[in-house]
Amino acid sequence: MTLLSDIPADARLYLKPTCYVPTPIGLPDGAAARMGNGLIWFQAYELTVLRGAQRIGRVTIPVAAFAATIADLPDALAQRARHLAANISAPRPPLALGDRTIRFDAPQVMAILNITPDSFSDGGKHMDDPQAAADAGFAMAAAGAALIDVGGESTRPKAPRLWEGDEIARIVPVVERLAASGVAISVDTRRAAVMEAALAAGAHVINDVSALRHDPRAMDVAVAAGCPVILMHAPSAGDDPHDNPAGYGDVVADVHDHLEARIAACIDAGIPREKIMVDPGLGFGKSLADNLALVNGLATFQALGVPLLFAGSRKRLIGALSNEAPAAERLGGSVALAFRAAQLGAQMVRVHDVRESVQALHLWRGLADAGLSTI
């Protein structure tokens, strides 16, 4: 890599925590930094420098030497690096959802409850019987899910377009039943009318695969509701969120830039930062190589300074790496991805298999607690 002082002022910087340690105890003061308000400590930052689509440098900087090292950058880039580092360590405030509060000092589980005939993994499982669907949601909450994500539209590739009235009819009876029992609910939709109906029925969070871009009214609805939002990356805000003819330059950097811009748009519109989460959109318009890069680079998204949701459950990359296992046979890979996401700082994982995922995260929490208590 060139000297930091030689980096052009129009370069783009990305910062990823690395060199993890189980505890800062016994290390010199300032040798380790904490990721958010969680249980992860690290001893170095990986600084990546891009110009256009070209990577022009990557260097690992010890935490203890970070301030002195980035002082050699052009002023604007040094300020950018300090901002990213501050975001990585900024506490993630809890989500206040009515009578429930979701804390982010340890990773949480979001449960998937699709009321659709054609979702890629569980399509048709909970259709046409709102009470049975709600009962499935109650079971997920009892198994340890902090948030039940109710969706009525399939977002699999090339899924047929759905009228918003049908989407509302699918989810509202289920949301009403869950809300009446005090369950915390997010609504997985990209349509403003569906958001309004679900929130009126008792949902607490908007989870939009288009990051509030698909429907021109979506941002206004979220602002007026004052509710938390989850902004997912998808390459297209059109009918098919997987549409991506241009591909990516550097997928981690491109997704980071997109989500950073959407966070800024939400804040400008009046949504407080503490009510924003992000999801890098694993599997949406991304190749196997793209998806693997996103998983390996997941900690980069901590520099956005908001809670990170990771959704890898039963997705295509698991089948691609396991002899084309069908969706129903991807439990092992799903749990492995959830555990890996927790290791890299994800504050929440979105899963189909709640009991197994909660158990895996309990194990992760036990290991992290034991590591922190080491003297």
Written overview of the protein:
This protein is an alpha/beta fold and 375 residues long. The chain folds into two domains: 4-89, no CATH class; 95-372, TIM Barrel (Alpha-Beta Barrel). Helices cover 35% and strands 19% of the residues. The protein is built from eleven helices and 14 strands. It has helices spanning 66-70, 75-89, 130-142, 164-180, 192-201, 218-225, 251-269, 288-296, 316-320, 331-343, 354-372, and strands at residues 12-21, 33-34, 41-51, 54-62, 95-97, 100-102, 108-114, 147-151, 185-188, 205-208, 229-232, 276-279, 309-310, 348-351. The chain has an eight-stranded parallel beta sheet with strand order 12-11-10-9-8-7-14-13. Strands 1, 2, 3 and 4 form a four-stranded antiparallel beta sheet that branches. Helix 3 packs across helix 4 (164-180), helix 4 runs parallel beside helix 5 (192-201) and helix 5 packs parallel to helix 6. The longest helix has 19 residues, at 251-269. The radius of gyration is 21 Å and the shape is globular. The protein starts with 11 loop residues before the first strand and ends with a helix.
Strand content: 15-25%
Category by helix and strand content: alpha/beta
- Measured between the Cα atoms of the first and last residue, the distance is 38 Å
Could you say what the CATH topology of the largest domain is called? TIM Barrel
Question: Rg to the nearest angstrom?
Answer: 21 Å
Return the domain count. 2
What is the correct CATH architecture of the largest domain? Alpha-Beta Barrel
Order of helix and strand elements from N to C terminus: EEEEHHEEEHEHEHEHEHEHEHHEH
Supply the CATH class of the largest domain.
Alpha Beta
According to CATH, the homologous superfamily of the largest domain is Dihydropteroate synthase-like
How many helices? 11
Form type: globular
- The count of strands amounts to 14
Which regions have little confidence, pLDDT < 50, spanning 5+ residues? Answer: none
- Give the proportion of residues in helices: 25-40%
